[in-house]
Amino acid sequence: MKTNSIYSFITCTVLLFSTSCKDETTKTEHTKTETAMSDNILLQDYTGPYGGVPAFDKMKVDQIQPAVIEGMSQGLKDIEAIANNTEVPTFKNTIEAMERAGHGLDNVFTYYGIFSSNMSSPEFREVQSQLAPKLSDYRSKINQNEALFKRVKAVYDASQTNPLPADQQRVTELVYKGFEMNGAELDAEKKKRYAEINKELSSLYNKFGDNVLHDEENYITYLNKDQLDGLSDGFIKSAAKIATDNGKDGQYAITNTRSSMDPFLTYSTERELRKQVWTNYYSRGDNGDQYDNNTLIAEILKLRRERVKLLGYSNYAEWRLQDRMAKTPANAMGLMEAVWPAAIARVKEEVADMQDVAGDDLKIQPWDYRFYAEKVRQKKYNLDSDEVKQYLQLDKLTQALFYTAGRLFNYKFTPVKEGKVPVFHEDVKVWEVTDKDSGKAIGLWYLDPFARPGKRSGAWATTYRSHTTFDGPKTVLASNNSNFVKPAPGEAVLVSWDDAETFFHEFGHALHFFSSNVKYPTLNGGVRDYTEFQSQLLERWLSTDEVINQFLVHNKTGEPIPDSLVQKIKKASTFNQGFATTEYLASALMDMKLHLADPENIDIDAFERETLAELNMPNELPMRHRTPHFGHVFSGEGYATAYYGYMWADVLTSDASEAFKNAPDGFYDKAVADKLVKYLFAPRNSIDPAEAFRLFRGRDAKIEALLRDRGFPVPTNN
Question: What is the Cα–Cα distance from 659 to 673, expressed in whole angstroms?
């Protein structure tokens, strides 16, 4: 996560991203400072149309380091001015001033994020490695500034007796809590060690992410024309193009990313090749070479434990969850343990069905699961995933996103003429977002859809500028980023149903950005086990009749998807939920258990193996993210002890979706949609998430809806 306000440096490790979707970032612009006049384009205020846009066409790697250093220097001057103010501390001269501080770094972090996530290179990784400890030092100088914290505490203490206006009170409490959680009240010796630990961790996080990216880029499986049985024509053409681009003309490349691995494991009849591709993917960061991450993980866990002990906490999870919806590790574990038995029981049923198809001569292995699950899907539901894929075209799905945003949020998306807005790669397209009725400018939406070397795997959303009314209303610059396999020229981009859901999910984050109605930058942040809820909820609109009937058309004939096929999709909606739930929950449980365990002399490989055995993890499938490449947790801290948050958010999602299901006009009911925007999207972090959900639903969420959604038994005593 990255945000512009100083509060972000107190609460987050800057510019360390999750490796999946749901990377929520926020940034805004403030009043100009002297750094805005810098010769370095990365430090300058955005110029051009739409309230100014990033100069992506002018950014260069060699500009990053000097821009960051100059921006940090100005940021510290801003902080010193606040800390040394001789006036009595007030919200305006302390908290509000902090919301403006560090403006010189705002734009730099946008470009830094693009180089890190979308356009990485060996040159940038070297710069990133050099900057990581410097950024850590910068953060420490802010959150350990005693004079600054004294002023923050004075404003906070006064607000407990004489509350401020609601949004100011929320900002004050968040800023104060950020300082408190990050050692502002430690003595000098402990503060010194705290800062040293953060610096060490920043370098380890960078190294972890670089190692995973190395294995993704270097473990490519090349096929010849006799090894393509079962694969679709579109996949084959794409694999041929990737191979040619890599200097392997006449061969076919299976890259070491989920978007390439998943369809190959689902359709290829070449079992030994499936094993090879599976092994490459799930061994990222775990190959016993210089890019192996196991030792790094052990060191990260020890440093995290040492750091929170300085603050008086017994483990990292206890410290991290205090400001999340779950509040305690026990609450998070309680949710996961409530669902786990039903998930692994369903896996046993799924494996039995697959074993019937495979026969007695073949025992289902992890590299067989997707392949035989597809066979069972066809047998049980007469549903062929590749047939469904023919109706899931990326351009049509993009129009479906716009339709949904129009119905729920009253937004209109208009393509921006090529060349009017700078982009960092030719694949990136841009749309203008306006209110359908008034024409009011909401912002711009950038889409970077395709996988390429140097782009991190997964899918995510981010902002280049967030809405606030702090120093005048700001339009939003939001982006969605995916890793779809680029098709051969003239071919449609066809995606799986799961990938289509993810596309809707990430767009949910973008809508969360666009709908923001907050004054202060800090309030654009979020609570990790809540911010996935809004985007998970938006996935539900893919399955609505309005979207299906208008946008799911055959890529060759243009014919709408047959109703008979739609009914098969709906009947199979809970199919393979054992696999989906178990692979996810295994990673979430591992995340929590690693941080609750004693990290002294921990053997990561043994811990993973033994923990899975204790959980009775089915042998036929792996965790979604094995520990050595679990970037959500070990390339930064955004999801550390927080990967459970997807499940927590899914409880909210399932419950909230029933509000739409039971409404007179279903998922497009205006009254429910208005409440959705008012209480669950627009407030961002300006009100407590639990209270926001109660305002929408009239009560707290219940787990029964989640169990029903997944086709699991609902306990009769609940």
Answer: 10
667 vs 660: CA distance, rounded Å: 5
Please, which contacts does 168-172 make with residues 24 or more away whose CB atoms are closer than 8 Å?
Answer: 168/91, 168/95, 168/520, 170/523, 170/685, 170/686, 170/687, 171/95, 171/99, 171/520, 171/522, 171/523, 172/91, 172/95
Pair of tokens at residue 287 = 């190959």
**DSSP annotation string for 206-245:** HHHHHHHHHHHHH--EEE-GGG-TT--HHHHHHHHHHHHH
Residue ranges, comma separated, of all CATH 1.10.1370.40 domains in the chain are 6-185
Question: Residue 372 is which amino acid?
Answer: Y
Q: How far is CA 677 from CA 257, 408, 673, 692, in A?
A: 35, 8, 6, 11
- Please tell me the distance from the alpha carbon of residue 427 to that of residue 435, in angstroms, as a whole number: 26
| Upper half-sphere CA count for residue 254 (Cβ side, 13 Å) | 24
CATH architecture of 6-185: Orthogonal Bundle (1.10)
Query: Please, what is the Cα angle at 23 between 22 and 27, to 5 degrees?
Result: 130
Q: Going by C-beta distance under 8 Å and a sequence separation of 6 or more, which residues neighbour residue 145?
A: 79, 83
**Contact status, residue 217 vs residue 209, Cβ threshold 8 Å:** no
CA distance 521 to 499: 32
70 phi and psi angles, rounded to 5 deg: -65, -40
| pLDDT one-digit tens code per residue, 422-448 | 999 999 999 999 999 999 999 999 999
Specify the long-range contacts of residues 395-399, CB closer than 8 Å, at least 24 apart.
395/492, 395/493, 396/551, 396/552, 396/553, 397/495, 397/500, 397/503, 397/504, 397/551, 398/447, 399/551
232 closest CA partner among 566, 503, 496: 496
Write the secondary structure of 70-138 as one string of H (helix), E (strand) and C (coil).
HHHHHHHHHHHHHHCCCCCCCHHHHHHHHHHCCHHHHHHHHHHHHHHHCCCCHHHHHHHHHHHHHHHHH
* Closest C-alpha to 476, from 484, 468, 485: 468
Instruction: Write out pLDDT tens, residues 341-399.
Output: 999 999 999 999 999 999 999 999 999 999 999 999 999 999 999 999 999 999 999 99
pTM for the full predicted model: 0.86
Distance CA(236)–CA(431), nearest Å, equals: 31
Vertex 680 angle, CA 476 and 156, to 5°: 80
Q: Tell me how far apart the alpha carbons of residues 139 and 206 are, in angstroms, rounded to a whole number.
A: 16
The answer to whether residues 54 and 107 touch, using CB atoms and an 8 Å cutoff, is: yes
How far, in whole angstroms, is CA 209 from its chain's centroid? 15
